[in-house]
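ARCHIVE CARD
Drawer: 12
Card no.: 0347
Subject: one protein chain, sequence and derived structure
Cross-reference: see card 0346
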Amino acid sequence: MDKIISEMRVNALHRVILPIVICLLISPLFFMIGLDSYKRIESSNREFSEFEEDELHNSIVHLDANFVLDCFAEYGSAVPYTREISETDKCYYIVYCRNGKYIAVEIDAEEADSLDEICEATWDYLMGYTDNLEKSYTVEGTVSNMTTTIKRYYIEWFEEMGFSDKEIEECALPYVVRNGWNRNTELACAYIGWGIFLILAVSILILLMKAVTQHKVKKDFARLGTLADTEITEDYANACVVNNRVRIGRIFTYDCSGLAARVYLNDEIIWVYRTEAGRSNKVHLWDIHGKGHAIKGDMQECSQAINFYEDRFPYIVIGFSTNLRQLFHRDRQNFLTLRYNDGKQNENSHDGLMEVSQDRSDDSIHSDNP
C-alpha cells in the first residue's frame, strides 16, 4: 500500500508544480506592494529635511513652501473627441526645499492662488521690498520622477534664468512632489498586498501538504476496512486503467484526479451514471450512504468506466433518470431493491468484501445522460 500511496504522491506533485511556480513568481510582487506602501506611510512621519537625496523617490514628504520662484508649467485635460484643452488641472512650481536646492511641486489648479501669492512675496523679498517671508503653504505628497515634458520645462526655466548646466545639476532636484495623498488608501494597499501574499504563501503550503501527505486516501483505506497490503497492491495492479488518474479495481475505485487521491469501496457503490457538458465528461458514483463522487475523463474514458461497472458489478444501477434521482434521494431503501439487495444475496464472501457473480439484468433502467 505504501508503494501505491507513493505513486499517488508523485502524480500529485507533478500536478502542483505549475500552480506553485506561478504562486512563487507573483507572491513577491504583492509582498513588495505591501512593503512599499508601509515604507511610504512610515516616511510620512518625517520632515523633508530628514531625507537623504537618494531616499526621496517614492517617499511621502512634508514640505513648507514659503520660498516659491515661479510656476513653470500648467496642464489641462484634453476634451474627448476634440483637440481642445479643458481648463487647467495641474500647476507646477519651483520651490526652495533645503541647502540651496530646489524641487518641483505639482498642485491642483484650485490651490494655485495660494502659491501665486507666496511667489509674489518671494520676489518682493528677493528685491528687498520686505524683510521676511511670512506666508507658507504645506505640501504633503509623493516624491516622483518627472515626466519627460515636465522635466524639459523645469530645466528650461533654470536655463532662462542664467543657470549653467553644472549649477542646474547641483541645485535642481530631478523630482516632483505631487501634493495630496490618502493615508487610508496607503494602509489599504499595504494590507491588501500583504494579505494576498499571505494567501498565496498559505496556498503553496496547502498544495504541498495535500500532495505530500495524501491524508485523504490514508483515511479512506483505514475507514473501508482492514485488508492486507498484498490484497490492495494486487487490486491496484490489476485494476482497469481508465486514464492516468482513474483506476477501477475489483475492490476499490482509485481516483487520483485531485491533489489528494481518494479510494471508493466498490461494494458500497449503488448508482453510476455519466454526464456531459461541452467537452467535460464525468462519471458520477453514488454510494449506499448517499454520498456522491465524480471521476473525470473524456467521452471514451467515461464510457469505458461505465461499461466496466456494468460488466463487473451487477448490483449497481447504471444510467440516469429523474425518477431514479428522486427515488435515491427520497427513498433510498426502495432504491436498493432495484438491484443492490438482490445482487448481494447472490454474491460470495471474500475476506469480508463482496465479489459479484450474477449476470446483469433489468436493462430497462439504463440511460446515458441526465
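Annotation on reverse: The chain has eleven helices and 16 strands. The radius of gyration is 37 Å.
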